[in-house]
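sanity check this record:

:::
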Amino acid sequence: MSRIPSLSEAAHLGHVYRRFPRGAVSLGKYADELLRGESELTVGERELLAAYVSGLNSCSFCHGNHKIIAEIHGVDPDLLESLLDSPGDSGIDEKWLPLLTYVRKLTESPSRVTDLDARLVFDAGFSEDALFDAISVCALFNFMNRIVEGCGVLFNDVDLLATKELHELGEKSATPYQDFVQVSTLSSKK
């Protein structure tokens, strides 16, 4: 249910970008660089973090979409749900537990992140670059969750199928987020 009167009741993020295109192209470029660019974290792992943060924020649209995208990139969809309930019991490699703790704390209470939290991530084998990528994914999806929730964008079965189709085709594209923004804002330039 859209909270913006000029958007339809069943507004999608694409509708938000079409109505409010300012910054959308830059945001799409940043998302592609962060989620598809070079990183020690795989595309699937970065999408897992995007879905995880969105799940922590109860953002069904972003959680649902990025869960599907993570699955396309090799992540077990059941893992994502169990991570939200109990990361320690989810079956994820124990190396990930300090990183997930860091991201959860950064999402839920950012001022409580400590040097020890970072040290535990490094001790688990992650580099500074990997931690910064995780921090950046966390920041991007906290931002996106607030855009989506603020505008009242909801996730539905139509979105599920469209996301799956777009990203299965988009696996061949290095810029799926810019592609999405381009298609979404096309009609606003006419």
